[in-house]
Amino acid sequence: MTGAWSGFSYIVTNLARFVRPNEITFSGVNSALPMLACLLAKRAYPFAFTYINVAGGVDPNPSKVPISSSDPVLAEGSRAIFANEDFYDLCTRGLMDLCFLGAAQVDGLGRTNVSCIGDWHAPRVRLPGGGGGAVMLPTARRAVTWRTEHSRRTLVETLDFVTAAGGMHGVVTPIAVFTKREGRLVLASWHPEASLDEVRDRTGFAFSADGAAPTPPPTPEERAALTALDPEGRFEADAGIRLR
Q1: CA dihedral for 35, 114, 87, 84, sign (positive or negative)
Q2: Is the pLDDT of residue 230 over 90?
Q3: Does the pTM of the predicted model rise above 0.85?
Q4: What separation in angstroms does the CA of 157 have from each of 200, 222, 232?
Q5: What are the boundaries of the region Disordered (predicted)?
């Protein structure tokens, strides 16, 4: 991690900031950035929380940080091993505090699309589908998603398909952090190298910015934790995230 606050480190750090003390937090499939965020939170923050990942690990102590968020190494040193049905069971019983769930499109109501781009009957792109997200987004106490591209094609006024809805609490992009208030996503903060006008111009849905301000910079502990997790910058290079 360099001295500048890159889009990559901005996303990972701000995802980590959604983690709260003594809660149960989950990261899923194809979720390298939330995986890093949870591992960062374990290193950087002076509180305990339970981290469960889709590889089945419960508070793991992995011998390495894998590229894949589904790598079995994420179960090393775990207090327990969970199967997929255990994740869903926690959610549906109201015991999953925070889920990091991916999305291709997000609208201003916090609904997500991971089903198709274009018309369902003749899509331009067929996406993987709801999977666990269709269960976990409506039932987790809080869900947070991220987009590596902040644009009107990903943050949209109208979804091409509504895959899941109900529990969205936050969205993080390379230049902004949104939270949900009174049923809609509102701007919480923006990257110090961006501006409110830029965020508005690059967002497809209207949003309130009342109370929003530039995001506080990463703490020394957050910087040190991410550097330790990605010392050679391979995750950052692989993510290919740009501010603009």
Answers
A1: negative
A2: yes
A3: yes
A4: 13, 34, 38
A5: 208-231
